[in-house]
Amino acid sequence: MKGSERAELRAEAHHLDPTVHVGHGGLSPSVIASLEDALRTRELVKVKLAKQANVKPKEVAEALALSTGADVIQVIGRTATLYKRNLDLKPKPGAPPAWRR
Fold it and tell me: Quick one: which of 66, 67, 47 has its CA closest to 57?
């Protein structure tokens, strides 16, 4: 992914709320399934890591990206933004992207 594309997605993600939350249980199969579902329907997703989790946010973001095939757009504090293009989502001409709906 080019830097300019990543910058555009960072700007788009600024106003998004976290969709997936990783609790003190860490990266369980249910968290990964939830993220895969969110990426399939929205493409651009924010993931919030709980304060009680004793892991580094960048490591969690990389692990989630690896397990779902997504790209890490950014990690700020305990929030990571991931993107995975879904070719099955065919927006109508002039319609906003899936993450804005």
Answer: 47
pLDDT at 91: 72
Say if residue 51's pLDDT is above 90: no
Residue 86 makes CB contacts below 8 A (sequence gap 6+) with 39, 40, 41, 43, 98
Number of C-beta neighbours around residue 80 at 10 A: 26
Domains of the chain plus CATH, in order, are: 3-85 (3.30.110.60)
Q: What is the C-alpha to C-alpha distance for residues 99 and 63, in angstroms, rounded to an integer?
A: 22
Task: Give residue 78's pLDDT band: very low, low, confident or very high (50, 70, 90).
Answer: very high
